[in-house]
């Protein structure tokens, strides 16, 4: 049986991701429950900052600016913290699992799911394509396919 892996970044996933993965896996006679699923969560700092700035807009407050000012007084710039690359533990776990089981088919919705990790997406793609006995497939191919 071919091992099937699905990788996606949660904030980018559509409501149809499960159906798309299930349809693909069925072509290999693999049930959805047997697919190894790796979903990358949103970076916690991004969630917190979005909550803070949304609250500011909704209530005409300036708490986010107060945080920026307070941090600046202590020699810390908030912008690099908020805009830092997202952590990618699911991606690393996917890579380790694919290696451990000896390869398989890695499904990714599209190239955007490989962006934002501090390395160009083409490098992340090359790493996934270089895994032994592994095929990388984008469910929605685009210009880089």
Order of helices and strands: EHEHHHHEHE
Give the distance, in angstroms, between the N- and C-terminal Cα atoms: 26 Å
Classify the secondary structure makeup into a structural class.
Answer: alpha/beta
Q: Give the CATH level 1 class of the largest domain.
A: Alpha Beta
Mind describing the biggest β-sheet? Answer: 4 strands, parallel
Give the count of structural domains.
2
CATH homology superfamily of the largest domain? Resolvase, N-terminal catalytic domain
Helix content: 40-55%
- CATH architecture tag of the largest domain: 3-Layer(aba) Sandwich
**Subunit arrangement of the protein:** single chain
Describe the 3D structure.
Helix content is 44%, strand content 14%. With 145 residues, the protein is an alpha/beta fold. Strand 3, helix 6 and strand 4 (134-138) form a beta-alpha-beta unit.
Short description:
By secondary structure, this protein is an alpha/beta fold.
Please specify the SSE layout and strand pairing.
Blueprint: E1 4-9, H1 17-26, E2 36-40, H2 44-59, H3 63-73, H4 78-82, H5 89-101, E3 104-108, H6 121-129, E4 134-138
Parallel strand pairs: 1-2, 1-3, 3-4
Which features does this protein show?
single chain, 145 residues, Rossmann fold, 6 helices, 4 strands, 44% helix
């Amino acid at each position: 049986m071919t091992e099937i892996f699905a990788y996606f970044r949660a904030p980018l996933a559509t409501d149809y991701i499960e159906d798309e993965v299930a349809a693909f896996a069925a072509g290999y006679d693999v049930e959805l429950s047997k697919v190894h699923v790796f979903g990358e969560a949103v970076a916690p700092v991004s969630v917190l900052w979005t909550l803070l700035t949304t609250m500011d807009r909704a209530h005409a407050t300036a708490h986010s600016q107060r945080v920026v000012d307070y941090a600046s007084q202590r020699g810390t710039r908030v912008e690099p913290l908020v805009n830092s690359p997202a952590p990618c533990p699911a991606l690393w776990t996917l890579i380790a699992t694919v290696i451990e089981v000896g390869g398989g088919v890695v499904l990714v919705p599209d190239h955007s799911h490989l962006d934002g990790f501090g390395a160009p997406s083409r490098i992340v793609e090359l790493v996934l394509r270089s895994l032994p006995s592994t095929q990388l497939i984008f469910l929605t191919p685009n210009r880089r396919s």
